[in-house]
Amino acid sequence: MRCSPDATVRTLDATDDDIHLFTDPSTETDAAARLTAADLPHLFFTHPATRRGRVLHHRLDGHLARLTG
C-alpha cells in the first residue's frame, strides 16, 4: 500500500510511537548512523533507489532491524 507523506505522518501520530520522520533519501547505512547518533528508538526514511519508505529500529537485543513497505 502506498500513501502520501501527509498520510504517513497522520498514521504515525495516531499510533503515538516515537518515530523520527525524514524525507531525505538515505541508504540503510546512513539511516543507521543517523538513528544511532541521535539516540532514536525508530527512524523512518526513504530508500534512494526505490523511493519506498522503511523504518529502522533498535531491537531488544541491541541490534538494528528494518521494516520495509
Radius of gyration from CA coordinates: 12 Å
Strand content: 25-35%
Largest sheet: 4 strands, mixed
CATH architecture: 2-Layer Sandwich
Total of helices: 2
What labels would you give this structure?
four-stranded mixed beta sheet, 69 residues, single chain, alpha+beta, SHC Adaptor Protein
SSE layout:
Layout (H helix, E strand, L loop, with lengths): L4 H11 L3 E7 L2 H10 L4 E5 L6 E6 L5 E5 L1
Parallel strand pairs: 1-2
Antiparallel strand pairs: 2-3, 3-4
Question: Describe it for me?
Answer:
The protein has 69 residues and is of the alpha+beta class. It has one domain (5-68): Sigma 54 modulation/S30EA ribosomal protein, C-terminal domain (SHC Adaptor Protein, 2-Layer Sandwich). The protein contains two helices and four strands. The protein has a four-stranded mixed β-sheet with strand order 1-2-3-4, with helices on both faces. It is globular, with a radius of gyration of 12 Å.
What's the short story on this structure?
Helices cover 30% and strands 33% of the residues.
